[in-house]
From TrEMBL, chain A:
<comment type="function">
    <text>Catalytic subunit of the enzyme which catalyzes the decarboxylation of isocitrate (ICT) into alpha-ketoglutarate. The heterodimer composed of the alpha (IDH3A) and beta (IDH3B) subunits and the heterodimer composed of the alpha (IDH3A) and gamma (IDH3G) subunits, have considerable basal activity but the full activity of the heterotetramer (containing two subunits of IDH3A, one of IDH3B and one of IDH3G) requires the assembly and cooperative function of both heterodimers.</text>
</comment>
<keyword id="KW-0816">Tricarboxylic acid cycle</keyword>
<dbReference type="GO" id="GO:0005739">
    <property type="term" value="C:mitochondrion"/>
</dbReference>
<keyword id="KW-0460">Magnesium</keyword>
<dbReference type="InterPro" id="IPR004434">
    <property type="entry name" value="Isocitrate_DH_NAD"/>
</dbReference>
<dbReference type="InterPro" id="IPR019818">
    <property type="entry name" value="IsoCit/isopropylmalate_DH_CS"/>
</dbReference>
<feature type="domain" description="Isopropylmalate dehydrogenase-like">
    <location>
        <begin position="46"/>
        <end position="364"/>
    </location>
</feature>
<dbReference type="GO" id="GO:0004449">
    <property type="term" value="F:isocitrate dehydrogenase (NAD+) activity"/>
</dbReference>
<keyword id="KW-0520">NAD</keyword>
Automatic annotation (TrEMBL), chain B:
<protein>
    <recommendedName>
        <fullName>Isocitrate dehydrogenase [NAD] subunit, mitochondrial</fullName>
    </recommendedName>
</protein>
<dbReference type="GO" id="GO:0005524">
    <property type="term" value="F:ATP binding"/>
</dbReference>
<keyword id="KW-0464">Manganese</keyword>
<comment type="subunit">
    <text>Heterooligomer of subunits alpha (IDH3A), beta (IDH3B), and gamma (IDH3G) in the apparent ratio of 2:1:1. The heterodimer containing one IDH3A and one IDH3B subunit and the heterodimer containing one IDH3A and one IDH3G subunit assemble into a heterotetramer (which contains two subunits of IDH3A, one of IDH3B and one of IDH3G) and further into the heterooctamer.</text>
</comment>
<keyword id="KW-0816">Tricarboxylic acid cycle</keyword>
<dbReference type="GO" id="GO:0016616">
    <property type="term" value="F:oxidoreductase activity, acting on the CH-OH group of donors, NAD or NADP as acceptor"/>
</dbReference>
<dbReference type="InterPro" id="IPR019818">
    <property type="entry name" value="IsoCit/isopropylmalate_DH_CS"/>
</dbReference>
<keyword id="KW-0460">Magnesium</keyword>
<keyword id="KW-0809">Transit peptide</keyword>
Length: 372, 372
């Protein structure tokens, strides 16, 4: 029972085609059986996301991808028991379609209001956060040759939220590491590496100081590595990884780690390729659920002005298409996006140009149509 | 205003207890005695070079060498070392390796030293050197890291089989102490801005307490700007625009990550010295605390970090002329002669670099021993 719940993909694994060597591919448990796949688009009532909706309807029409979008709001509401929860329509739509694409969500600063992202994570048991980081040709950063993936355990670790005030002036936070979660994330990491033709997996830890907790995480990673002899497994201290990452990021391939280290390192890697405005991200959950999202903020100052950069959400959508097995469409959209950025003629403000969001999207749609 | 006066009087009484009774370091017959702990890996050879340079420059420092065997399970060695440091007041050390496959009762020797001697502040000054080729230029950041508590409390237990809890402790006293150290240092060095690095949006009580203490201390230093930043954003900003940071203060684990990132940005672990200060004692070492096992005894290690740490030691002992002479010699070798070791892209050996430093000291310094 346990293996069925934790590894639903084992039974119907689809290997991506060999000539597509790209870090955005995830393993895809879905066969494109019907011509219409239903996925969900989650958004909050921010206007920034409104532009994204427009953009996506534009491009799904032009690329003719067999996707039907259902829009659902995920603004938390107070349930009958008084606890905050995701609206039930959103939840049942998600359970039916299993794949979602999410725009930026803002957590109101009101006291007692839970974090929106945390709520989503708990509702769908999104245990793995995958963030592929590859340098974008045309968007210059001091680091040119980054090509790595960070896989972060998303449910426990330092973010368990268990804190106590022992006496006045002394606070204790509890970091929780469990065998089950560590095994699950390690297995996901190795499966990902195998399905995307990755060479090595590195476990990042601090077991010299946190002997038992990170020791347990490492032991589970080692055990899982025994079953994947074709992939090289190494372990490295967190500080060594940070040191080497800023000097030479080419030495890393897939990194797997607990929650806090993952948070810091995935943002570090996003900074290497140009920031959160161009970084895609995917959250994989139990029972085949996957939500792909852009991790940047809601940017209320430019909402509604057609100035936003849709690259992060676009690349997350490409990741989503690969996850579903629609590699042809994914490749087309991705190439169109990279070509547009490389040509530097039509770019949004944060990429260095002065075009609008709709112009940028139209340019990408045009390129996709030209490719057909 | 009322609140800041209250908070000032609160921590003022703490300060009176902690700060104003610093005993002078050991000095017999004009010669200072300093404890030397060779450690593992490249530690012994680099510390030998330090002794060579000191002997050559006629520095009035005697080293009391205390060896710590990292593979022994009992704590006699480390207790001897700690007693020696208590006796002498100052220490210079190489990193002692921690084998993380040993059981949790075997604590990290370095951590044990820092907590027993209450060396609560770790200071690291990262400066771009003109002679070293790096991706980012003009970096000048001072990092102050809390050294005794936080995630490194080594308090872990396995409550249920397969579930490990690790405790992170934050106390008001230690947070006030480290914040005060940071602001005093910033004022002494004429720095304008102090940034606190935290994750208080997730660890609301723990890092929230740290942040609150920093704000209280900041209110007593109106000439210095205080702001705060979340740790994942900090790492992203560090790889994009490190020139925006001035002085940074943070708890233990974030300090580990940020100091390693900054060391990587200025050229690597071989260039930056680190200092650990307590109320009564001081300990100097390389900032990133690497054992360097893979390059031990090959004559390719970079001696700069250890030699600059020894200059910090001389400054602490108030032997400023010797410190300046040696430091200038090191910087001249680094920037003008461009004699670099392999880790920063050159072909020189450790002994060549040290020889070049000693030649420059001979030309510019007051008095040196005739070299046989």
């Amino acid at each position: 029972v346990d293996s069925q719940v934790t590894c639903p993909w084992r039974s119907n694994l689809v290997r991506p085609r060999k000539h597509i060597k790209n870090c955005y591919a995830t393993y895809s448990p879905f066969q494109a059986t019907s011509s219409v796949e239903i996925i969900m688009f989650l958004f909050n009532l921010q206007e920034l996301a409104g532009e994204m909706v427009l953009m996506f309807s534009l491009f799904s029409v032009s690329t003719k991808a067999p996707i039907q979008w259902e829009e659902r709001s995920v603004t938390a509401i107070k349930g009958p028991s008084g606890r905050w929860m995701i609206p039930p329509e959103a939840k049942e739509s998600m359970d039916k379609s299993k794949i979602g694409l999410k725009g930026p969500l803002k957590t109101p600063i009101a006291a007692g209001h839970p974090s929106m992202n945390l709520l989503l994570r708990k509702t769908f048991d999104l245990y793995a956060n995958v963030r592929p980081c590859a340098s974008i040709e045309g968007y210059k950063t001091p680091y040119d040759d980054v090509n790595l993936v960070t896989i972060r355990e998303n449910t426990e670790g330092e973010y368990s939220g268990i804190e106590h005030v022992i006496v006045n002036g002394v606070v204790q936070s509890i970091k929780l590491i469990t065998e089950k979660a560590s095994k699950r994330i390690a297995e996901y990491a190795f499966e990902y590496a195998r399905n995307n033709q990755r060479i090595s997996v590195t476990a990042v830890h601090k077991a010299n100081i946190m002997r038992m907790s990170d020791g347990l995480f490492l032991r589970k990673c080692r055990e899982v590595a025994e079953n994947y002899k074709d992939i090289k497994f190494t372990e490295m201290y967190l500080d060594t990884v940070c040191l080497n990452m800023v000097q030479d990021p080419t030495q890393f391939d897939v990194l797997v780690m607990p929650n806090l280290y993952g948070d810091i390192l995935s943002d570090l890697c996003a900074g290497l390729i140009g920031g959160l405005g161009v970084t895609p991200s995917g959250n994989i959950g139990a029972n085949g659920v996957a939500i792909f999202e852009s991790v940047h903020g809601t940017a209320p100052d430019i909402a509604g002005k057609d100035l936003a950069n849709p690259t992060a959400l676009l690349l997350s959508a490409v990741m989503m298409l690969r996850h579903m097995g629609l590699h042809g469409y994914a490749k087309k959209i991705e190439m169109a996006c990279f070509d547009t950025i490389r040509d530097k003629k039509v770019l949004t403000k944060d990429l260095g140009g002065n075009s609008k969001c709709s112009e940028f999207t139209n340019e990408i749609c045009r390129r996709v149509q030209d490719m057909d | 205003l009322q609140r800041s006066i209250e908070s000032l009087s609160y921590y003022n009484c703490i300060l009176r207890v902690f700060l104003y009774n610093v005993p002078p370091p050991a000095k017999y017959g004009g010669q200072h005695t300093v404890t030397l702990i060779p450690g593992d890996g490249i530690g012994p050879e680099l510390l030998n070079h330090v002794r060579e340079v000191f002997r050559f420059s006629c520095v009035p420092v005697d080293f009391e060498v205390v060896n710590v065997n990292s593979s022994r399970a009992d704590e006699d060695d480390i207790n001897n070392a700690i007693t020696a440091i208590r006796r002498n007041g100052v220490a210079l050390k190489g990193n002692i390796e921690t084998n993380h496959t040993m059981p949790p009762s075997f604590k990290s020797r370095n951590n044990l030293m820092r907590t027993s001697l209450d060396l609560y502040a770790n200071m690291m000054h990262c400066q771009s050197l003109p002679g070293v080729q790096t991706r980012h230029k003009n970096i000048d950041i001072i990092i102050i890291r809390e050294n005794t508590e936080g995630e490194y409390s080594s308090l872990e237990h396995e409550s249920v089989s397969g579930v490990v809890e690790s405790l992170k402790i934050i106390t008001r006293l230690n947070s006030l102490r480290i914040a005060d150290y940071a602001f005093r240092l910033a004022r002494e060095k004429g720095r304008r801005r102090v940034t606190a690095v935290h994750k208080a949006n997730i660890m609301k009580l723990g890092d929230g307490l740290f942040l609150q203490c920093c704000r209280e201390v900041a209110s007593g230093y109106p000439d210095i700007t205080f702001d705060s930043m979340i740790v994942d954003n900090t790492t992203m900003q560090l790889v994009c625009k490190p020139q925006q940071f001035d002085v940074m203060v943070m708890p233990n684990l974030y300090g580990n990550v940020v100091s390693n990132v900054c060391a990587g940005l200025v050229g690597g672990p071989g260039l930056v010295p680190g200092a650990n200060y307590g109320r009564d004692y001081a300990m100097f070492e390389t900032a990133t605390r690497n054992t360097g096992k893979s390059i031990a005894n090959k004559n390719i290690a970079n001696p700069t970090a250890m030699l600059l740490a020894s200059c910090l030691l001389l400054d602490h002992l108030k032997l400023h002329e010797y410190a300046t002479t040696i430091r200038n010699a090191i910087l001249t070798t680094m920037n003008e002669t461009r004699l670099h070791t392999p880790d920063i892209g050159g072909q020189g050996t450790t002994s060549e670099v040290v020889q070049s430093i000693m030649n420059i000291i001979q030309k510019t310094g007051p008095r040196t021993v005739a070299y046989y």
